[in-house]
Amino acid sequence: LNDIKHLQYILYNWIIGNQLIIKYTNRIDNREFIRAFASVFRLFLPDGCCHLIEATNPIASCTANLVLFDTGFITTTNEREVNHDNSSIIITIIVDNIDYHIREAKLETLPLLISNITVPTYVKTIIEALTDNSLDDEAFEAIITQHKIKYL
Q1: In angstroms, what CA-CA distances link 7 with 55, 119, 136?
Q2: pLDDT digits over 8-54, tens only?
Q3: d(C-alpha 104, C-alpha 108), whole Å
Q4: Which domain does 43 fall in, by range?
Q5: CATH number for the domain including 117?
Q6: What is the DSSP string of 8-43?
Q7: DSSP state of 132
Q8: How far apart are CA 37 and CA 150, in angstroms?
Q9: CA dist., res. 15 & res. 115, Å (int)
């Protein structure tokens, strides 16, 4: 997720209406960490436009644009596959059981090598804010809110 091109791909496709699926493994019964992680993505959409669903089983097509899929209860590889269309963006996350840090994050649906995506100004602004290490959390959230109002 530190790759700017991948982040642009994720944000662009999600903002234009494609589904973002976050598959995670968390072997303890506390989902607060993954919910906090998902709330960061909620900042990027206009207020009231993030429709979240949490699942522990493969789900049929739904209207949610953010799906949290807990793979910790799944025993076979086939069950890990989530029903999705070709436009879905899938991120797999492994959460450390001890300190709740992300041990591994992988983008399963990689962008095409030759991609002619025009990155919208809103996404460029988010990327710039994410890479600015001088911003604290409050300033970052204020910038995102201001640009949501301006561009979305």
Answers
A1: 24, 11, 20
A2: 788 888 878 888 888 887 666 667 778 887 887 787 777 777 888 88
A3: 12
A4: 4-151
A5: 3.40.50
A6: HHHHHHHHTT--EEEEEE--SS--HHHHHHHHHHHT
A7: -
A8: 25
A9: 17
CA distances from 13 to 17, 18, 131 (A): 7, 6, 20
Query: Residues 122-143: pLDDT tens digits?
Result: 778 887 888 888 989 898 888 8
Distances (CA, A) of 106 to 1, 24, 47: 7, 10, 27
**Sheet of 102-107, strand order:** 52-55, 66-70, 20-25, 89-95, 102-107
Q: Which two tokens stand for residue 31?
A: 């989902």
Cα separation, 57 vs 66, in Å, equals: 15
Q: b vs e for 48-76, b when ≥16 Cβ sit within 10 Å of the residue's Cβ?
A: eebeeebbeeebeeeebbbbbbbbeebee
Contact status, residue 93 vs residue 37, Cβ threshold 8 Å:
yes
Torsion angles phi and psi, residue 61, rounded to 5: -55, 140
**Tokens 């995102």 -> residue:** 144
The count of domains in the chain is: 1
